[in-house]
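Kindly go through one protein, given below as sequence and tokens. The question is how this chain folds according to its tokens.

***
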Amino acid sequence: MTVSGNCHKIRTALILLDQQFEWIEVDTRKGETKTSEFLKINPNGKIPVLQLEDGTNIPESNAILYYLTRDTPLFSKDLLEQTRILEWLFFEQYSHEPFVAVNRWLMKYAADGRENSSVLENNHIKGNKAFSVMEDHLRGKNFFVGERLTIADIALYAYSHVAEDGGFSFDGFPNVRRWLENVRSFPKMISIPR
């Protein structure tokens, strides 16, 4: 689904790596991930899923990022850098995405999303906490690991660059705002359609 940040990560990596791919749109809003056909591809019923030429399926966006980039400059050959990249991938999935992405979904796509004020407020607090962690880490840095674009940046950029759709502001996060511009200006970088 083109508007999904998790799908955006994969599309971005494929484009940056100049990989040929076929993109198949699956609309979660229409229940297309709950069909028996899709559940054979991913029993968890979620997107994205990378399907290899031999028919092997790899679900989970950050696992797909690792698979696609493990031997490229978007990952690292250095063990400590690899570990730091993985730290940020886990942070993105557990401390960032659940709050930033859900607020975006509720405010932009859910018919009754704005009626969930307590959920929105709780997510806003936790999302801002994640942006505070990112802000502190990015002090004096252009990227998250090794001063170059890696999949840590791609993963965090996916929902950060559209966080305003979920009611977030970067007024108090100048380092995050600068980082977003650094990533956005990277050659071939794409954004989620708004």
Notes: The first strand starts at residue 49 and ends at 51. Strands lie at 49-51, 57-59.
